[in-house]
Amino acid sequence: TNYFAVSSRFGTPDDFKKLVDEAHGLGLLVLIDIVHSYASADEMVGLSLFDGSNDCYFHSGKRGHHKYWGTRMFKYDDVDVLHFLLSNLSWWVTEYKIDGFQFHSLSSMLYTHNGFSTFTGAIEEYCNQYVDKDALIYLILANEMLHELHPDIITIAEDATYYPGLCEPTTQGGLGFDYWANLSIPEMWLWHLENVPEREWSMNKIMKVLISSNHHMLSYVENHNQSISGRKSFAEIILNTGMCSSGSVDDDLIFKASSLLKIIKLITFTTSGGAYLNFMGNEFAHPKRVEFPMSSNEYSFHLACRQWELLDKGVHKHIFNFDKDIMSLDENERVTSRGSLNVHHCDDTNMV
């Protein structure tokens, strides 16, 4: 609900500035997940009913609420809303010196149906009465402002529908993002892991998802969507979590499972179209999902953590070392910046 500082649960604004400075000193960039696609419906500490009216920053009526989540939806045709959101972006860069943004859940704002529709890729699905043209204009303005004032800034679009022109220059009719996060890749891996024995995986189907539209693509094996309540982390699916914390990589079962996980990591990394991302804990095969305190788990913090002590244990240490080797490969060979792939052979029979 606070747009101009991190939650006080994690520290003060000065604490965050120190964190950013420390990261920069280590040669790391700091990007934040910015949520301008919707807002909290909280009327006590949020923007909802901020001035007592229902439409101060948001649409009135049904359009003012997300179709399924109940969150408030900004009215991007309002000049004050544009000023507020653009100033919010500028604040994070000028005050906290962050290096970029991932724009969260763009499909929620790009369409009046909030992205909850069947998409086949037909151009008509992106050019109809359900597209919020004012939201498009805001994203163009945001990218133009950020890249004009801060040439080294990085902007990433998180859009499950892959709106055409996400990463094309605004001068060419695009939205101006530097990268787009391909949410279909982790969903593809999850579907295979849960539904298809590994000996029956189709290499053609896998490669189709991995390399389709991989221009400026940010790839990852799994993200927060695969780790929310009721689902499992990939390590939890692939590895027997009762054994993996103490299991040795010499154990046949653990060796086979960890090898499968490493193959998934390697093929996703080498086919990425520009960038690769680890969700926290994936780099060492964290055995449990993330689950925040909520009513369904009686507000437990049990899964709202990462077990960093596993970094030096058994199969987790082995997979972590493999992940570091992948990063070194990119540093030395520039794998993710080589451009589009040319896949010359794909054989389902021999799984090659």
From TrEMBL:
GO biological process: carbohydrate metabolic process
GO-annotated cellular components: cytoplasm
GO molecular function: 1,4-alpha-glucan branching enzyme activity
InterPro entries hit by this protein: GH
Protein name: Uncharacterized protein
Organism this protein belongs to: Aegilops tauschii subsp. strangulata
